[in-house]
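Hello forum,

I keep getting stuck at the same step: I have a sequence, I want structure tokens, and every attempt I make locally crashes halfway through. Rather than fight my setup again tonight, could one of you with a working pipeline run this one for me? It's a single chain of 81 residues.
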Amino acid sequence: MPAALGMAGFDVSLLTPANSFAVKSRFVRRVGYLPPNATPLQWVFAFAAMIKATSPHLVVPCDNVSVRLMQMLVISPPNNL
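Reply #2:
Ran it on my machine without issues. Output:
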């Protein structure tokens, strides 16, 4: 996916656990790492920090956990966010 997005002209950033295969892509320009065994709240804060740092035009969840966490953010965002 990073290659397809990069070739389409996107500046690709990635928020991922440390062992992600996607970080090896030459199309990924910036990487944010999640803490090991991140809780949903830690993920939310890491996601918010990545958004602040990169100001993305598009956010693409790349696995089922990310989809569920992003849906959770829309349906019931944390009070302290």
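Helices lie at 2-7, 40-54, 64-75. If your local run keeps crashing, start a new thread with the error log.
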